[in-house]
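call fold(seq) -> tokens
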Amino acid sequence: MVELTGDSLTLKQMEEILYNDDKITLNSDALARVKKGREAVENIVQNDRTVYGINTGFGKFSDVKIDEKDTKALQLHLIRSHACGVGEPFPEVVSRAMVVLRLNALMKGFSGIRADVLERFAYMVNHKIHPVIPQQGSLGASGDLAPLSHLALVLVGEGFVWKDGKPISAKDVWREHGLSPIVLEAKEGLALINGTQAMTAQGVVNYLEAEKLAYDSEWIAAMTMESLKGITDAFHPAIHEARGYAEQISVAERMLEWLKGSGLTTKQGELRVQDAYSIRCIPQVHGATFQVLSYVKEKLEIEMNAATDNPLIFDDGEIVVSGGNFHGQPIAFAMDFLKIGMAELANISERRIERLVNPQLNEGLPPFLSSEPGLQSGAMILQYSAASLVSENKTLAHPASVDSIPSSGNQEDHVSMGTIGSRHAYQIIKNVRNVLAIEALCAMTACMYQNVENMAPRTREKLEALRDIVSPIDQDRIFAADIQKIEQFLCI
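ret:
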């Protein structure tokens, strides 16, 4: 059980909620803050104070005053009109993350929403009621308006939710659970959609999957090293301490742990003086990716606990301020950085694949790891696929955050495109996983041409785990199925 306070949610807790179906509970002190914030909104409405989003229009319509009798209708119109998402839906795990993160942000008590609405969000998480949310349509400021509007539609019974992998009416789901749709009060529609939770939710999933892949890349690279009789001197601690990057030092330490006890690796001068960069520089390159992950983790954990609504309510309603916390620039930068860091893991992996299959580089292994070179192509086209994926990644890695298009009559004249960056990062991560799956298949096959008994105990254990799901390349077959099986093996 994870308690949401609005201030303390971690990526580790998100992993438990998203992948282990942990339930959530709402902190009582935070709920007390929420109730005070709601009282402030009700006082503003009753006293006819003019406050953006409570009794005014939105965006360019912010100067249009709304009568008290229309404040409820204003919120529903907002949700309906802003639900303009298009394209394929976000993965269900991202939808779940979005609900949790929007709920956690509202728990801070600065948004003026009723506790009843937040309790319904918690019910959705605990009963796996996950909105169907189209991926495209957000500029990343004013927050993720279109995606979060599709989330909010579920609350009012007008959207769709996932059930057994298919979308069904939210209205029908509430009926099944014996609950009525939420009727939005003043400011609540705006509070639900003015935030960065789409890009951040996708970013959380990106980070969790990327971190696992970064660790997986090490044992896969270690198997490649053994099959090529790589030189372990390159991982000597003194080299990495001399440079000083903690992440680089840690990768070198873990590589030596993976290869501990191996009879297949070599020392410098035994077969050759030094290895190619894709082998020798694993700590430097993989370590740099871990530096990126550290940066991304820091930004995500701040944003996960951030108030990204507008306006924000302070001092029991004495101070109501319009600002720009919905602007997704910090996450846009983080996602663009993540794209580059993960793309490089695939780049260096593809170069190791080339060394495994190229007869001029693979230290006497069969050409393309073929059991009958010429008659059977072996892993030749596996390298083609990896090359295609890393090339696609180079296009996807173009930073989304450098773009901006004015909107809302030029009132919202600079936007982050952070959700585009976050979505592209997820595509890159999927491509990286497939490249690593290809390297794993080639490395496993190459190790089989060596004396498997001489492998390091830990890499031998991984090889046996792979052999439980796919066979080494002993003859030509449809390798797409093998890649898919290993890719699933590498998933969280």
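The beta strands are 2-4, 24-26, 86-89, 134-136, 160-163, 166-169, 312-314, 319-321.
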